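Protocol step 4 of 5: obtain the predicted structure for the target chain.
Materials: sequence only (see below). No template structures provided, no constraints applied. The aim of this step is simply to have a reference model before the mutagenesis design in step 5. Sequence pasted as it appears in the construct record:
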Amino acid sequence: MHKGTQAPAKPDKNIVPREVLEACRQRGWDIKPLAAAVADLSPEGDLCKTYLLLDEDKLLFAVSDNRGEMDYAGIFGSAPVRPERIREVHTYPLTSIARPRLLNQVAGGMLVVDLDGEETWLCRFSGTRMHQMRRF
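Step 4 output (structure tokens):
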């Protein structure tokens, strides 16, 4: 997904809690991310953390069940994500993804790709997440 001169956003325990990786494993996806990011809005604009995990052959989205919760730039903290709090996991083979791009919006942006030839809004994010999403 990453293009440009900056290195991709490498996953760390602050970006991808191990509980999120465990929730993915429990659903049959044992992923070792090469890059990761966190979006904080659903495609519809609802507050919702979505963990984006990229490995050698797929893009995986782990969608939190914590709707309506937000970190507000991280200064207030948040409850740890537990596997049962991951509502759904979506995977997309990289072979089905083309033209990944970020669309700037008034207060954040949107990750858009062509998925099997059709433009698809994968997630939205606030301005707080813009730098991380650009590195992803």
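Step 4 remarks: The chain has a mean pLDDT of 81. Strands lie at 35-41, 47-54, 58-64, 86-93, 97-105, 108-115, 118-126.
Proceed to step 5.
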